[in-house]
Amino acid sequence: MLGVTALAILRAPGLFTVVMLSSIYSLLSAVVFVTLDAVDVAFTEAVVGAGASTILMLAALALTNQRRAKPTPISPTGLIAAFLMGGGLIYATVDMPVLGDPSAPATLHVAPRYLNDSYDEVGLPNVVTSVLASYRGYDTFGEVTVIFTAGIGVLALLGRGRRDRKSRRKASSEST
Amino acid sequence: MEQHFPVLVVLVPMLAAPIAVLFARGGLAWFLALASSLASLYMSAVMLLTVLDVGVISYHIGDWAPPWGIEYRIDRLNALVALLLSGVSVAVLPFARRSVKKEIALERQYLLYTCWSLCLSGLIGMTVTGDAFNVFVFLEISALSTYALVSMANRRQAHLAAFRYLVAGTVGATFILVGIGLLYMQTGTLNMADLAERLPAVAGTRPVIAGLGFIIVGIAVKMAMFPVHGWLPGAYSRAPVAVSAFLAGTATKVSAYLLVRFTYTVFGADFTFGTLSIGTPIILFGVAGAVVGSVAAMHASDLKRLLAYSSVAQISYMGIGIGIATVEGLGGGMLHVFNHALMKVALFMGVGCVLYSRGSASLESFSGLGKQMPIAMGAFTLAALSLIGVPGTAGFVSKWYLVVAALDSGWWPVAMVIMVTSLMAVVYMGKILERIWLGQPSTDVAHEGRVPVAMLSMLYVLAFANIYFGLETSLTVGVVLDAARELIGQGG
Amino acid sequence: MHHHYVLRVVSKILIPPILLFALYVQFHGDFGPGGGFQAGVIFAAAFVLYALVFGLAAAREVVSDTVLRIVSALGVLLYAGVGIVNMLKGNNFLAYNNLAVDPVAGQHLGVLLVEAGVGMTVGAVVISLFVYFSS
Amino acid sequence: MDSLPGYNYWIVILLMMTGLYVVMSCRNLLKKIVGLNIFQASVFVFYISIAKVSGGTAPILKDGIDVYSNPLPHVLILTAIVVGVATTALGLALIVRIHGDYDTIEEDEIEAEEPEG
């Protein structure tokens, strides 16, 4: 289903449809996350990916007044790049551990300490929260800064003084 | 206090940003950015001395021992890069004050300096971290703030350039993310030192090889290596000129550092360049990039664009040095990272002075400036000579090491290409110098005022740094060659 | 939209539970799925609903742009502040153990404060994104 | 299923390829951003499938359960999702400005106005 949605996005001409499909795509991947036992990630993907991004995309769509995208011609460079990347990954799958393999290296080295000791060391039953806020709290600090940066960036682009965009546009096209 | 320097060097500029936003004053934001860059410069200098003295510093954030927690790990190489980054920021900020005042509306200036601080802390964070996923997080901090910085120029092409940069940068970052995921899948760890220890056991497996490929491609995009350099000319030529100067000295340099860090430290030189001989394609793309960049620079009509294309060529030299993978080659490549930052920052500052006083950076507007602005143009000429690689300048030293390394390891056509593209640099920089010193002043270019002393003096600091590091090479060459020996030795 | 009484009444009824739910998600992250990020976004959703029904101008009166900017900065500073307190108390950055006598209680407090910082910044930034995009 | 050990990854790979192709080929700027989202979301699925442990449950500790999925990739992806949204927001803001500048978000029409880019 994810694949069908992704292909539909590629072909759909209506931008509103594209945004809706992308929201559906996010919700579907949230469902996949639940089946893979990642409830926190599913929750976030549903709230942030399907919710916040969609609202922003709709707002952007409303501001740009564009409803339809031109049909996309087949791009050879795009195809080559996509197939090179896909080929590289498929080449790699041969040696990959089977899905759910309890003896995969990823589940053996670092992760067991989080599962076994985090309750004694941090005291929270939700291991994801312990890792997120304590063991790898610095990543989360960086992540908050990323959000803050995005807020500042959008403020710089769309904040105060946008009302005279039309006049500035004239000025900037004259100066070029 | 000193034991916290590894994290403070990142934290201080990062905290300057929200504090600047609280007060929303351009002047205060500028001061905070400058003060925090100075603090970072001091701290990275202290750390470099400590590292040279006692060896690697490891800082465990949250007191969680690696690989469970995130580790900051300072060695010779990244201490030098951190010094370079904060140094460039300290040098460009006094210059930026007046230049930004002229280019950007007053109420948005504090946002620019906020993004500047965030960008600096993101770049230093990428440099000092010893955790592969932490690299991705800080890379995104610096990337998002860079897109915002580029888009702040008051011209519409800047938005387009920033958008293209955003798309390319995000694809690059996602490639790096996939690569880190593949490594994690095979080793179960994210800590770089731990990865380096555990990778040899699984080195032959396909996910590891694919992971290396993804990481190299992703970094190449961020570094603007040929053929994925498309975003750079637009971004550098459309950004506010002070931002161009800052980014030219920092952003691609950190990517070059990351390439070294992943290929040499994490995977090990033996594996990357011995078993897989990744060096050959890197060198070949580097050669192609050097030629393409130089040819494009010869045809550019705007000086910012010319400098941006010349950056593509110069970045390719760094790639060549990294790909040759001998002590001289790697040392030359890293030396060029340092020296190219010095010359490009000075050149963009020179252009900034001309933009400030003439309002244009087209080639025509440089005609006869040697008579009208002899002081600024003198410094510009010094930096231009360094870019060409005239003996006695910093540019010569690193090119020398690169050519020698290429000849030593049998890559003599590569040495030829470095020579030929240097000649092309003579052509495109010579064209401008000729206009500056021999051309007639054009009458229709506006005269918009004298260049402020602050801008001129920082331009001179950088120009003389080019000469200083061209003559007195013991500091940079010594550190870099030692670092290269350490990195190549690590593989076994 | 201003004359749709049903909408106005329904949203007036809905907004408090949404805010409550945001707080629940914020503080329940220790035990179940949830945490600062999700809570921030849900909190912002309540604001978006208010703005959609009562108009953006009314919503901006409730939460002004300056407040948003300051809260988003304070969230980052709160997060870093916790780490700095840890440093002043002699441990490394973000080592929560020393926040209380018992290291586990310290960790708990640290996580709580840090998640609050996350929630502040995320909520304020998402609201301001919505405001910028729709004005 | 045993004959194709990596079947779950094949789906992810196809999704990543589609996403990358949308980013590189679509000339509409908004579709590019949507393509980036697809590309990133499929990488997220890839990470989460690394974390899956057969017979395990979500990593929230309860008495009587011994097998949990690996929490570390979950944490990484939580971070990455938020980073992705931040990028999307900034990209959309740029699109709005570009539309204000050029009255279009089709790259072909912008390039017609801006030959040098």
Condensed summary:
By secondary structure, chain A is an all-alpha fold.
Give the SSE map.
The complex is a heterotetramer of chains A (176), B (492), C (135) and D (117).
Chain B lengths: L4 H19 L2 H29 L2 E4 L10 E4 L1 H28 L2 H23 L3 H20 L4 H32 L4 H11 L3 H18 L7 H8 L2 H26 L2 H7 L3 H21 L3 H22 L2 H32 L10 H4 L1 H15 L5 H15 L3 H27 L14 H19 L2 H17 L2
Antiparallel strand pairs in B: 1-2
Helix pairs in contact in B: 1-2, 1-4, 2-3, 2-4, 3-4, 3-10, 3-14, 3-19, 4-5, 4-10, 5-6, 5-10, 6-8, 6-9, 8-10, 9-10, 9-13, 10-13, 10-14, 12-13, 12-18, 13-14, 13-17, 13-18, 14-16, 14-17, 14-19, 14-20, 16-18, 16-19, 17-18, 17-19
Chain C lengths: L4 H24 L7 H19 L1 H7 L2 H24 L14 H32 L1
Helix pairs in contact in C: 1-2, 2-3, 2-5, 4-5
Chain D lengths: L6 H19 L3 H23 L19 H32 L4 H7 L4
Q: How would you sum up the global shape of chain C?
A: elongated
Mean pLDDT of chain D: 83
Structural class of chain D: mainly alpha
Query: What is the element string of chain C, with H for helices and E for strands?
Result: HHHHH
The number of helical segments of chain D is 4
Contiguous helical run count of chain C: 5
**How much is the average pLDDT of chain C?**
85
Rg value of chain C = 18 Å
How many beta strands in the DSSP annotation of chain D?
A: 0
Calculate the terminal CA-CA distance of chain C, rounded to whole Å. Answer: 17 Å
> What oligomeric state is this?
heterotetramer
- What profile does the largest beta sheet of chain C have? none
Write down how many β-strands of chain C occur, each being a DSSP E stretch of 2 or more residues: 0
* Whole-number count of domains of chain C: 1
Structural category of chain C: mainly alpha
